[in-house]
Amino acid sequence: MIEILVLYYICKRLGEYLRGKGRKPLLLQILLVLFWFGGEFLAGVAAGVVQAMRHRGVPQEFDFTIYGAALVGAACGAGVVWSIAKLLPPLEPEIPSASHFGPHPGVPREWDFPPDDPNNPYTSPRSPF
Known about the structure:
By secondary structure, the protein is mostly helical. It has helices at about 1-20, 25-55, 65-85, 110.
């Protein structure tokens, strides 16, 4: 039950992260669930095979190492999906901070107020008032 709650939390955080990049999160959230359970299954089976070879058959007592290996496999599957999400570029270009802008949105301050150049023939005449 705790695994399902952790998986829900990770899917929720992945959705927030991808929406922040301007992307739709559903495909990667489905991929996260598949990789979680796939990694858990594959690591559990591999650990079970190793345990069976180590004990020369089926072990008689319960051992948490298979479950621990399955959890590590689930974390690795989730890590692969998070790595894919981190590599995706944002769809919308990032807006620079407001400190770079002048009084008009989107226009840098140096464009809004050009420096006075007495040798520039295109500057407007300045009024003494």
